[in-house]
């Protein structure tokens, strides 16, 4: 029998409150005459660590849906059906980047979702500690560009895997992406490997808060959605992470997550929430072109970042172009990205062909990172060590 002991409140949003609790086995009182269970007796697990979980309290309907989305998503990632070797490897790797759901407890008017506790904080926390932690500048907010590139590669790969399974997160933003620095470091080598070898699969991100997720497989092929964003229900649309389509009542599918991914990149680089501008030139008659307001540092990999922001903020425009017949090679040439050979045979590729552009950009970034993981006296390995210390080590 297990008792839950409250440690502290972790956070509170408009739809849920999350508490940190400790699993405490109920110990048998030796001085009792009968065999009834007595007071809680704190114990450690087999690894010598306290068993901590995040308990998310929310409405019954919200709890049921998030439990379904998380359980189904992790099952599809861990056991891909009909996927080739490359896709299967990507999906299985992404399982480590999901928040793990242990149980759902349903009550009359409330539900309690038990989630594995990940105590290293969000991307936002990581950025806020950058200067003090020695992996950012004291004069400019944001993290070192090497770290920004690494975390964005992890976000891009993870979200592609999620979309291949037929799921949409729908609330992607820096607050919902956690730092994931695991492993004891014994197999972790200095040189970055995009395939996750040499201990690099232990480092990355973890995506949380799936309460507004969408299971595309429950709908007919090609289905899109028009719903009010959560922002419209509170303080109005938020362009820092909500895509143009959601903010303007236009149809959307995977655009929601890729725009949110751009918001994560912006916070990593600039240290503040994204501000965007709209331009009719570059749009497609359906919607305008959206771009980041402000300027990038001249010493950043500006061509790479500009291509990434361009596609993530405007992927609906590029997707319509490709659905109408424009080739992947043509779009990549326009963006200055090396063309990829072939496509992945998935439903996602057929319905949302711009994923090939996003994948090509991600792979070009991975190649750059493999060649430049140690640069100008800094290394990605060393910077991640500093992040690990700043966010509280391994949990």
Q: Any overview of this molecule?
A:
This protein is an alpha+beta fold and 395 residues long. It has 13 helices and 14 strands. The strands form 5 sheets. Strands 1, 2, 3, 4, 5 and 6 form a 6-stranded antiparallel beta sheet that branches. The protein has a two-stranded antiparallel ribbon with strand order 7-10. A two-stranded antiparallel sheet has the order 8-9. A hairpin with a 2-residue loop joins strand 13 and strand 14. The longest helix is centred in the middle third of the chain and has 20 residues. It starts with a strand and ends in a 5-residue tail after the last helix. 38% of the residues are buried.
Task: Present the secondary structure layout.
Elements: E1 2-12, E2 16-28, E3 37-40, E4 52-58, H1 60-78, H2 85-94, E5 101-106, E6 111-116, H3 123-128, H4 130-133, H5 145-164, E7 167-168, E8 177-181, E9 203-207, E10 214-215, H6 244-247, H7 255-270, E11 276-279, E12 289-292, H8 302-313, H9 315-323, H10 328-335, H11 347-351, H12 355-372, E13 374-375, E14 378-379, H13 380-390
Antiparallel strand pairs: 1-2, 2-3, 2-4, 4-6, 5-6, 7-10, 8-9, 11-12, 13-14
